[in-house]
Amino acid sequence: MPSPFAILRSGRLQLPLRRVLAIDVGQRRIKLLLAESFFGRFRVVRAEALDLQSEGLVSPEEIKAHLQTLLDDAGHPPVTMVLPQRLSTAQILDLPQAPESEVERLIADEALKLGGASESRIVYDFTRLNSSDPARQQFWVTLCREEEIRERIHSFGLEHEDICEITTTANALIASWQRVEPGSHRAVLVHLGAQSTVVVVLLENQGIFAASYEIGADFFTRSLAKSRQLPEPEAEQLRRSQDLLNGPAAAPEFRAAVDGWILELQQQLQEGFAQHPQRGRLSEFEWIASGGGFDQPGLLEYLRSRADLRLRRWPWEQGNGGFDHTRDPRGYEVAHGAALQALGHAHQAISLLPEEQRRAWRKRMDRQRVDLLSLALVCLCALVLAWGTWRKLSVIEEKEALAAKIQAAQEAVDFNDSLAADLISEYDSLRPVFAGQQNSLDTLESLALLQQSRSNRPYWYVLVSDQDSYFSYPRLPASTNRLVRTNLLGPLRETAETQPPAGWLGPNRPATNASPAKPGLIVELCAPGDPESARATLSELVKDLKQQPLFSKADLLSEDLRRNLADPQVVLPERHFVLALDFAHAEYSQPFILKKSAGGRLVRPHRAPTARENGPYGPSQPAP
Q1: Is 485 buried (19+), middle (13-18) or exposed (0-12) by CB count in 10 A?
Q2: CB atoms within 10 A of CB 519
Q3: What is the pLDDT, as a whole number, of residue 603?
Q4: Hey, is 4 helix, strand or coil?
Q5: Which of 118, 178, 166 is nearest to 142 (CA)?
Q6: Intra-chain end-to-end CA distance of the chain, in Å
Q7: Per-residue confidence (pLDDT) for residue 416, from 0 to 100
Q8: Lowest CB count within 10 Å: 300, 371, 462, 537, which one?
């Protein structure tokens, strides 16, 4: 038959004392309880009872081999053992107030006295009890011979296992009761096993007395078999199936055996309470029954009616001690208490682990702690690495998103530049038409204004030309405008001479290739008469032309820009003047220009400066 622990195989790396296997070995049964504690929560993983007689396990070697099989199936978790109460001694020591080191020495001396004369070492442990006397302190002390403990370990083949705890039946019952009934103050725990009975007294939920005597359920069976001349297996079956204590089927011989057990129980309690008379009366205590012996039909009723022992079964239903609802916890009181103590859930823990096993267990726990710290460090490094990777990926994603936005923006700019270039290309194809139309209109209007301005004025025009045609001819070899000597037009001369000619790029930097032509006209005229009248006539004409919105600039042309185009027969030397007239509307004369910024991005197209913004004498020069 496969073991129920086969599904509980676990890894080697576990939290220290996270999972333990409690072993309670009796005369008829071996009870195994696998429990775990996870972040302070106690839970029973598996409970199994092995009937030695039904399995045919009689010899110690057979029991040892079968127990090893169960441990193999369970994955060899840490083991906690329960010693029979008869192998140990439990007692309260009342000591005066003293330092901890002195207390340990006094308890060690007292343990040696309680152990008696023996060559075997004494293994003992103690725990402090609450005391009402401030001048005294009390300790619950349990001791056992080391030889007995080692023999018990060897008899079950556990010398190579990780033994984390060894306790006694009484201390296991105390730990289990404190877990199931934490609010109980006074209780008498009676554990009836196959070979012996264990009695434990608790006051204020602390163990104050523990004893055992060698009368158990097997004693009842043997008495029944002897009185009725039956084999023990048949007597055992009869005892478990019928109520032999109450009613018409009651057996006097069986009652006598039970009365003997009751008498021994009362005697043990009387001796215990005689040592502690201040503890109160037995009637004030709860009576709790545990163990397989109380499965005898009618036993509890007989004890209540005959001996006034108000025993009730172990109250698993209230706390359930970590068992789930699908598992029957009855019969596992001792194993349950041992597991609680091993996992650190007992308030009155007593450990009888020999020094050799204690050192081995501490070494194992230290190794596990190092493994756990290493695992925690690896997990921390993994978390830091994961966080760093996530952070880097987030930065990469952000940069990729920004790059995508930049790419989209660049594509939009390129598309916009392409549209702008197409628009300007279409505009440039139409611009000459618009420029010619505008120039024709301005020329006709200019001719009309020039004709109108000659009315009632003594001068005549000798040449009217557009600036492109005029400046396409070579310059004059020598100047014919000699008004400088006669001071005929002093203010006008001064303006013309101080301003740089058109085409200059800056002060003292003449342009060699740039043409001074702008959209407009060049007008040559002759003003006869004396210098004063010529000056007045010319000034009046220039003034009238400047007031016309058709022209952005009207001024004398610099001598170095003049061309020899007029017919000499119609020209009066020293009375020959040249005017430059720039049209105000010249937006069609220059193409739009696309420029790139320093980063290589195309900027908004702009138009060339008009004649109003840049006259024939260079940029930013004022009109005379």
Answers
A1: exposed
A2: 25
A3: 53
A4: helix
A5: 166
A6: 125
A7: 92
A8: 371
Q: Are 156 and 25 in contact (CB under 8 A)?
A: yes
Mention every residue, 6+ apart, whose C-beta is less than 8 A from residue 611: 518, 519, 520, 552, 553, 582, 583, 584, 586, 589
Name residue 332's amino acid: Y
Rg (CA), the chain: 61
Mean pLDDT calculated for residue range 504-529: 70
Could you identify the residue written with the tokens 């001071």? 487
Instruction: Give DSSP secondary structure letters for 352-405.
Output: ---HHHHHHHHHHHHHHHHHHHHHHHHHHHHHHHHHHHHHHHHHHHHHHHHHHH
How does DSSP assign 167-212, residue by residue?
Answer: EEHHHHHHHHHHHH-TT--EEEEEEE-SS-EEEEEEETTEEEEEEE
Instruction: Pull the structure tokens for residue 132.
Output: 């009402």
Q: Which residue has the higher pLDDT, 430 or 189?
A: 189
Distance of CA 542 to the CA centre of its chain: 87
- What is the DSSP code (8-state) at residue 563? B
Q: How many CB atoms are located within 10 Å of the residue 515 CB?
A: 12
Look at phi and psi of residue 56 and say left if phi exceeds 0, alpha if psi is from -120 to 50, else beta: left
| Average pLDDT score over the chain | 81
Q: Which DSSP string corresponds to 496-522?
A: HHHSPPTT--BTTB--SS-----SEEE
